[in-house]
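Now for one specimen:
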Amino acid sequence: MTITAKLVVDKKFVQNITLSDDPGETELIKGMGGVPETDMVAHTFGTVGNWEVMYVGSQPKNRLVIGKMPRLSDATKKRVDCTLTDQQSEKLVDALEILWTEFGFKM
């Protein structure tokens, strides 16, 4: 099965990305425009409600808005579709960037 995530670049929605419902690091990295050979991990930028925002080091302006990773104790180990609108995805990314900047994170 597949899910849809949203790619936001420089705080603007760019496109929907189709991923498997249990994506591995390589799939997440490629979805953000990263290179698996040099980007070793897809980092969590922040989690709000049912949504996770991710980034890779080589693409500092790219953010992937995706269904939150399930807990290990959850019966189903799959992510869900990102049902946020394009504008909601942009606002989520912007809010997290404001929060991180406020606490000294350099982007």
